[in-house]
Amino acid sequence: MPRPADPAKRADLLHRIRGYVLRNGLTSLSLRPLARELGTSDRMLLYYFGTKERMVAEALSLDDRRPLLRFRDVRNATDAPENAAGLRRLLEELWEEFHSPDRRAAMPLQFELMTASVLHPDKYGPLMLDLITEWTDLYAPLFVRLGMSDQGARNEATLLVDATLGLLYGSLADGDWDRATTTFRTLLDRLESGWTPDGT
């Protein structure tokens, strides 16, 4: 019978893998160079994580400061937004967290993952789908709370997720974070009036 994986060793490896991936990117990631830097073997990495893609997914989800984790806490709290103005304030706070300087270091990796999910959908498509689904699933209940139908809430959530990803990507490309913030607020200006049952 194989010996069970050491949880402490696995956790330590995962933290170090995350650091390596942040420094070196995703698309050229190879297990042997990674294992060499970590002082282990590619066979041992597969023993602990099963596949390279699963390893990457766990490494990306390791950050306990992710803005979406905070958003989940707010969504589940009793003081979740009860009106459109409150939801807008929450979305603006989340935007500020996403494009804060300390979050930008991890952002290129997220968009590298997005590109990899298109070029290699069999390997990385599920990871990107999980990310978008997580984000949409966090937004949609907040719109339902304001009185939207389930389908209307998911449509609104999808619009916000896709638009926010586009603005973050554009900001990363041209470095103009102020322009993106102004555009995001303009988007909210146009959407906020629809976040009520009667659209007023």
Q: Can you give a write-up of this model?
A:
This protein is mostly helical and 200 residues long. The protein is built from eleven helices and no strands. The chain has helices at 7-24, 31-38, 42-49, 52-60, 67-76, 84-98, 101-104, 107-119, 121-145, 150-174, 177-192. The relative contact order is 0.10.
Short synopsis of the structure:
By secondary structure, the protein is an all-alpha fold. The chain is built from eleven helices and no strands.
Identify the notable features of this structure and list them briefly.
200 residues; mainly alpha; 2 domains; 11 helices
Q: How widely separated are the two ends?
A: 65 Å
- Rg from C-alpha positions? 19 Å
Mean residue pLDDT: 84
Judging from the principal axes of the Cα atoms, what is the shape? elongated
- Overall tally of structural domains: 2
Q: Fraction of residues in helices?
A: over 70%
Task: Give the class from helix and strand content and strand pairing.
Answer: mainly alpha
Low-confidence stretches: none
Main beta-sheet annotation: none
The fraction of residues in strands falls at under 5%
Tally of strands: 0
Reading the helices and strands in chain order gives: HHHHHHHHHHH
Count of helices? 11
Topology:
Blueprint: H1 7-24, H2 31-38, H3 42-49, H4 52-60, H5 67-76, H6 84-98, H7 101-104, H8 107-119, H9 121-145, H10 150-174, H11 177-192
Helix pairs in contact: 1-4, 5-9, 6-11, 8-9, 9-10, 10-11
